[in-house]
Amino acid sequence: MGAVRIMSEFDESRVLDGLQKLDSQVIGAVYDKYFPEVYRYVYYRLGDQTLAEDIASDVFVRLLEAAQGRRAPQSNLRAWLISTASHAVMDHLRRKYRRPVEALSESMADLGPSVNLEFDQREQNRFVREAYAMLTSEQQDVLALRFGQGYSLEETAIHMKKNVNAVKALQFRALAALQRSIGEVDYE
Fold first, then answer.
1. Residue 170 lies in domain
2. CATH code of residue 60
3. Is 186 helix (H, G, I), strand (E, B) or coil?
4. 61-77: per-residue pLDDT in tens?
């Protein structure tokens, strides 16, 4: 069964069966299809490209380990991957909380006219990240899924195992908390 045929039809039961059998074409096709989505989710949560690549790659290593140990997902592969990514992000944040690290800039800022603008942008980004970090884990999840991943309310509700109205309320509270912390937030 060719990887192109698998992914064009994307019969999830055949894909899950291929994972159980450790079919390299299926594994490659799953990686190609879902890596960008897992990466975007992690990047939205952490705001660090290198870290997002590492954690997203680790999610696929976990998938292979699960498949090898006959613990691969039995249904809804996409949800399994995002859920695993969510757990990996939380593990990273717990480790970071225990041992905070101050990131250093890899390059010296040049003294051109954009230094002030770049500094203001970095400060604004830092301020938003700090406000985002003060949200509850559920609030961070709903914002990451809705705005980082572009999930619909229904998809978000399924992923979070909540009803749509609960997701709407959680999103509203998360945005309101951000607004209180940083001022004006665009609700669109």
1. 118-188
2. 1.10.1740.10
3. coil
4. 888 888 877 776 777 88
